Amino acid sequence: MASSPACNDKLKNRNRTPDSSTSFRERDKMEEECGVFGIFNSDEEDSAAELTYLGLIALQHRGQESAGICVNNGGELNLHKGMGLVENVFQERDFNSLRGRSAVGHVRYSTSGSSLPVNAQPLLVNSIKGALTLAHNGNLANGAELKHNLESNGSIFHSTLDTEVVAHLVARAFENNIIEALIQSLHQLKGAFSMVGMTEDSLVAIRDPRGFRPLSLGRLGDSYVVASESCAFDIIGAEFIRDVEPGEVVIINEEGLDSRKYSGEKNSSFCVFEYIYFARPDSNIAGQNVLLARKAMGRKLAEEMKVDADIVVPVPDSGIAAALGFSEASGVPYGQGILRNKYVGRTFIQPSQEIRDLKVRLKLSPIREIIAGKRVILIDDSIVRGTTSSQIINRLKEVGASEVHMAISSPPVQNPCFFGLDTSRRQELIANGCTVAEITEQIAADSLHYLSREGMLEAINADPDLGFCTACFDGSYRLAERYLTEEVR
């Protein structure tokens, strides 16, 4: 079957050699931007930094480019951050200068802003209002516009972070109290922002009015803890209390916890990809365990897809939960037919297409004795550019699979994200321009099946009041069209 001109354009874009702006897309997956963590009044004088370190380890899946911790030591804020994984950024000697009972931490994967040391977070600033550190997860749709306006009025920026835009807004706010100035600044922001901030006497947790990104509140003894996901509470033995609500500011200090709603927005737009891929399986969001939601998506996919097969095989690790659910619902046996080499990490070079293909072979290795002669249903959570899917299918057929039917536990990704996910531009998304039949041919599958949007939402079974952002599937961004620039339309 000949591909349409629109599909041919997608294939040219997906197969081009990555430049500096696309080299992180080699995994052919969406990437989350950041993970944030904060603790107020830890039980021991020097434990805040160590507890934050452990929390960031639990959130490492949300960002691997940089990490940082800022500690409050009697009103003095001290910061250490750097490029790389948490365990590489922090050595034992670094904690000697990170003494205090409150702290904010951050792990980053860049979507807006380059991968540079100056863009590592948390961001620590000082103004006439006092010291403020901020850690941000998300993306401001109007960040460029706000930055331009600030620069036109004399502001000088040292990074390309949306977080620094917020810091400048706080400095210019009419309110003299730094927390009130921060809250006042929130009304100018459009887009996704889950933030943890720390002043000389308080910890602040903020979620945007639509709640695009997750943020949870917990307790450890007499301490309060906030984090992007509840899995960060488990590692330090903290108790999950609740999710920070969309449009809520939680202020924690020696007087206790104060909750304020700064927005009257009624509709939420929580990112559905948190359930599909981003969040850790052991996290709970809006009353729903992530692993169980993914298994339910697999069961729903089995209901919608009727194919005779001998074995269900997941793409590790992203397809495992859905494959288990698919197997349970369909009765087709589950098999770990692909071994993932966990010691193969990302590359920060710009290799040739041939070397990238060889890296996939090194990372994912089919087990011939399980696959050979079998009709395989291959389960994954999504297809973005399609390059990895085609390589895996080819490998399965090399080791003797008689048929490979690709099953995806989410709808086709047709649109880019502007709220904190690293998706390719629209022209690189294979489902935007290619039909399912054309994608099937390009990835060399015997058939391709996506979970329906309705099936996906039914499977998640979260809080009934939770509204989802599904823009990457259906193009419904729920924000003013004017924030989508011509460059990314």
Short summary:
By secondary structure, the protein is an alpha+beta fold.
Tell me the distance between the termini: 29 Å
The domain tally reads 2
Count of β-strands: 23
Q: What would the average pLDDT be, to the nearest integer?
A: 88
So, CATH architecture of the largest domain? 4-Layer Sandwich
Shape: globular
**What fraction of residues sit in β-strands?**
15-25%
Q: What is the oligomer described by this structure? A: single chain
Poorly predicted residue ranges: 17-27, 347-351, 485-489
Largest sheet strand order: 3-2-4-1-10-9-11
Structural class: alpha+beta
| Share in helix | 25-40%
CATH structural fold name of the largest domain: Glutamine Phosphoribosylpyrophosphate, subunit 1, domain 1
Q: Please summarize the sheet with the most strands.
A: 7 strands, antiparallel
Rg (C-alpha, Å): 23 Å
Total number of helical segments?
Answer: 16
Give a quick set of tags describing it:
489 residues; alpha+beta; Rossmann fold; Glutamine Phosphoribosylpyrophosphate, subunit 1, domain 1; 7-stranded antiparallel sheet; 23 strands; globular; disordered C terminus
Explain what you see.
There is one protein chain. With about 500 residues, the protein is an alpha+beta fold. The protein folds into two domains: about 5-30 and about 290-465, 3-Layer(aba) Sandwich (Rossmann fold), CATH 3.40.50.2020; about 35-270, Aminohydrolase, N-terminal nucleophile (Ntn) domain (Glutamine Phosphoribosylpyrophosphate, subunit 1, domain 1, 4-Layer Sandwich). It contains 16 helices and 23 strands. It has helices at about 5-15, 45-60, 85-90, 145-150, 160-170, 180-185, 230-235, 275-280, 290-305, 320-330, 355-365, 370, 385-400, 435-440, 455-460, 470-475; strands at about 35-40, 65-75, 75-85, 100-110, 125, 130-140, 190-200, 205, 215-220, 225, 240-245, 250-255, 255-260, 270, 285, 290, 310-315, 340, 365, 375-380, 405-410, 445-450, 470. It has a seven-stranded antiparallel beta sheet. Strand 15 and strand 16 (about 290) form a beta hairpin. The longest helix is centred in the middle third of the chain and has 15 residues, at about 290-305. It is globular and about 70 Å long.
